[in-house]
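Board notes (copied after class):
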Amino acid sequence: MQIRFSAKNVDELLTEWSQQTGSSLCIDPFEVILKMPPAMGNGWMRQIKLRPGLEMTLKHFEFSEPFVAEVTSNFSWEAVEFTSSVSGYVRNVVNGIPNEYKITPRQSRMSFFQNCGGYVECLPKQSVIHIEIQIKLPVLDNMIAGQVEQISPNLLAVLLGKSKDSFSQAQTMTGKIAQVTEQILNCPYQKGLTRRLYLESRAIELIALQLPINSPDTLPAPRLLKADEVDRIHHAKEILLTNLEHPPSLLELAKQVGLNDYKLKQGFRQVFGTTAFGCLYHHRMEQAKLLLEAGYSTVTEVAQAVGYTSPTSFSAAFKKKFGVSPKTYKC
C-alpha cells in the first residue's frame, strides 16, 4: 500500500492520514489518537502535547502488507526529534539528507529536518514500537542553557543559527534509555495532569540521555529476517502466550517452530524488541493486571493463573513492571 500526503505540518498530516486510510481519529486538548483500520493491519499512534514546544509521539502498529507513506510538499518541522526504537524496521528517505537511513530495533536516533519532504517504508508483519520526542529549537536551547560541551556538532550548529541543514544520527540504545522507554510504554497513569507530567519528566530524561552524541550514523544495519522467518517468530510468540503456566524452554520453542535458538533470540529482538521470555513476562503481567482490575481473584489466584507458583515472586515481578504491588493495585 502506498499513500501520498500534501500536508505542511504535523496537524495537517494527522488529518490527512485519517482521511486517506480510514483511521479513527480521537482528539482532546492534549492528545490525538489514531487507530489503524483492520484492512491495513492493527495498532495505533498517539501524539501527546506535553508543554508548548515539547511533544511525544507513541507508535505501536503492524501493517498487513508493505506500506509506503510519502510527503510530497516541503514539510515544516523545525524541531529536533529523539527516537527510541523498541522494535521494527522503518526505511526513511528525506530530502536534504544525502543517504537513506533505517530505524532498527534497539536504536536511539536524533534528527533535525528543515522544510523537507520524503517517504518512509515499513515491512509487513512486524511490530513497530517507537517513541518519538519532538522539541522546538528555542525550548531545547533554553533547556541546554549554554552547556554545549557534549552536544553533537550538527545540532550545535543548528542551535547557534550557523546551519539549517537536516541531519539524522544514531547510536545503540543504552540500558538506561531502554529502561526509560519501558516506563513510558507502561505509564501507570491513564489520564489527566499526573499522566502528562509523568510522561514529560520521562521525555526530558530521554533527551538528556540522547544528547551526548558526537559521531555520525555509523551503526551497521542488522540482517533483515526473511518473510517465513518472521512468520515462525510470530508462531513462537503464539505458542508462548498460550502456555503461560507451562511455557516451553527456548530450545523446545525453537524446535517447535523450525529455527535454531540463536535465530529465535535474534528474531524476537528484531520483531518484538524483546527476548522470548521478556515477551512472556510482559504478557503475564498484562493478564495479571486485567485479572486484578476485574476484582474477583486473590493475588495468589492471579499468580497461579499467569504461571507463577510463588506469590512472592509474582508480587516482585508485578512491582518491577508497574511500580506498585499487586495487592496495592487491586485496592
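Comment from the instructor: Residues 2-210 form a domain with the Jelly Rolls fold (CATH 2.60.120.10). The longest helix spans residues 192-210.
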